[in-house]
UniProtKB/TrEMBL annotation:
<dbReference type="InterPro" id="IPR015422">
    <property type="entry name" value="PyrdxlP-dep_Trfase_small"/>
</dbReference>
<dbReference type="GO" id="GO:0006534">
    <property type="term" value="P:cysteine metabolic process"/>
</dbReference>
<comment type="similarity">
    <text>Belongs to the class-V pyridoxal-phosphate-dependent aminotransferase family. Csd subfamily.</text>
</comment>
<dbReference type="InterPro" id="IPR000192">
    <property type="entry name" value="Aminotrans_V_dom"/>
</dbReference>
<dbReference type="InterPro" id="IPR015421">
    <property type="entry name" value="PyrdxlP-dep_Trfase_major"/>
</dbReference>
<dbReference type="InterPro" id="IPR010970">
    <property type="entry name" value="Cys_dSase_SufS"/>
</dbReference>
<dbReference type="InterPro" id="IPR015424">
    <property type="entry name" value="PyrdxlP-dep_Trfase"/>
</dbReference>
<dbReference type="GO" id="GO:0030170">
    <property type="term" value="F:pyridoxal phosphate binding"/>
</dbReference>
<protein>
    <recommendedName>
        <fullName>Cysteine desulfurase</fullName>
        <ecNumber>2.8.1.7</ecNumber>
    </recommendedName>
</protein>
<dbReference type="InterPro" id="IPR020578">
    <property type="entry name" value="Aminotrans_V_PyrdxlP_BS"/>
</dbReference>
<comment type="function">
    <text>Catalyzes the removal of elemental sulfur and selenium atoms from L-cysteine, L-cystine, L-selenocysteine, and L-selenocystine to produce L-alanine.</text>
</comment>
<dbReference type="GO" id="GO:0031071">
    <property type="term" value="F:cysteine desulfurase activity"/>
</dbReference>
<feature type="domain" description="Aminotransferase class V">
    <location>
        <begin position="1"/>
        <end position="352"/>
    </location>
</feature>
<keyword id="KW-0808">Transferase</keyword>
<keyword id="KW-0663">Pyridoxal phosphate</keyword>
<dbReference type="InterPro" id="IPR016454">
    <property type="entry name" value="Cysteine_dSase"/>
</dbReference>
<dbReference type="Pfam" id="PF00266">
    <property type="entry name" value="Aminotran_5"/>
</dbReference>
Length: 366
């Protein structure tokens, strides 16, 4: 990114001078890298956005204009992040559609029977996370997508927690749209990706108007560009896209299967260690999961746990994790969440355990 700003900084797809052509080439090469990372059918199926949140807002409003009518239904799950709840609520209010919510089981998995029961001829859109940001649950995307497609529903997958941790093949998953954020995949903040099958992207109206997304503008009408430019109005985060491409190249060089294997060993070790500690309650136990473990410490607020762990050199997140409906379902005001990646070690899990023992001592339970 630093090299881009030093040597190639210019706006894209506007100028004919050398820097503009270099910047445009780097931006489009980044799009190709993302397409390869997700195993998309073509780079033109990749839209650059600010992150998963913007991608889901884009889809909510564009799909709302394209496919929703009063009386239709949108199906979500109890494990959604706020970013995959609020935009659909707003669109439902405007379009007169109804939100349906599929239950989760006590072990943190989607209740597939309830999911199937709530799919009807009224279902126009289904949306769910590839992996839960609270429970770590890895959902059966292809199975859920196939059930939804039987009813002609559009399938939207929130891939924020998965894309940087497990191999993702959007064609194999059979989803229509898939979104993730760069900073969840070792990339910079402020850049993200929306994948859409070409035939799905092509029928969507624009999200924003401005430079870069048009073919021609007249006083009485505007002719918009084809995807992906249609959804990239204004000056994009070119340096962010370049940085994301390098991060994804690095992940691919390590190997997503290798990363998945390492993280699985870490989470197995962490769960075994944490379950042996007194006063620790692990939240959810899905059969398939990513390297996230949420827990509560008996009698201690999650924020207090996180503060003490921070003093011991361990960074965790505490609270409702932008998933308040899920917390209500679980019966907690918040949890502590430890997240692991390819750079974490077993020694760091041991440090987490030592920190939790310190928590137990401080609160008089030692």
């Amino acid at each position: 990114m630093e090299r881009f700003y030093r040597e190639h900084n210019a706006n894209i797809q506007r100028g004919v001078h050398e820097l503009a052509e270099e910047a445009t080439q780097l931006y489009e090469e980044a799009r190709q890298e993302v397409a390869q990372f997700l195993k998309a059918g073509s780079p033109r199926e990749i839209v650059f956005v600010r992150g998963t949140t913007e991608a889901l807002n884009l889809l909510a409003w564009c799909l709302g204009r394209a496919v929703l009518h009063p009386g239709d239904e949108i199906l979500l799950t109890e494990m959604e992040h706020h970013s995959n709840i609020v935009p659909w609520q707003w669109v439902a209010e405007v379009t007169g559609v109804r939100l349906q919510v599929a239950r989760i089981l006590d072990n943190g998995e989607i209740d597939c029977e309830d999911w199937e029961r709530k799919l009807t001829d009224k279902t126009r859109i289904v949306t769910f996370p590839h992996a839960s940001n609270v429970l770590g649950t890895l959902n059966p995307v292809r199975h859920l997508a196939r059930l939804a497609h039987r009813f002609g529903a559009v399938v939207v997958v929130d891939g924020a927690q998965a894309a940087g941790h497990i191999p993702v093949d959007v064609q194999e998953l059979e989803c229509d749209f898939y979104a993730f954020s760069g900073h969840k995949a070792l990339g910079p903040m402020g850049i993200g990706v929306l994948y859409g099958r070409w035939e799905c992207l092509e029928r969507l109206p624009p999200y924003q108007g401005g430079g870069g997304m048009i073919q021609a503008v007249f006083w009485d009408r505007t002719l918009v560009a084809p995807p992906p430019r249609r959804f990239e109005a204004g000056t994009p985060n070119v340096a962010g896209a370049v940085g994301l491409a390098v991060a994804l190249q690095y992940l691919r060089s390590v190997g997503m299967d290798t990363i998945r294997s390492h993280e699985q060993k870490l989470i197995d070790y962490a769960q075994n260690q944490l379950s042996s500690l007194p006063g620790i309650r692990l939240v959810a136990d899905p059969k398939e999961r990513i390297a996230i473990v949420s827990f509560v410490v008996e009698g201690v607020h999650a924020h207090d746990v996180a503060t003490i762990l921070d003093r011991e050199g361990v960074a965790v997140r505490a609270g409702h994790h932008c998933a308040m409906p899920l917390m209500n379902r679980l019966g907690f005001s918040g949890t502590v969440r430890a997240s692991f990646a390819l750079y974490n070690t077993f020694q760091e899990v041991d440090q987490l355990v030592l920190g939790l023992k310190k928590v137990w001592e401080i609160f008089g339970h030692g």
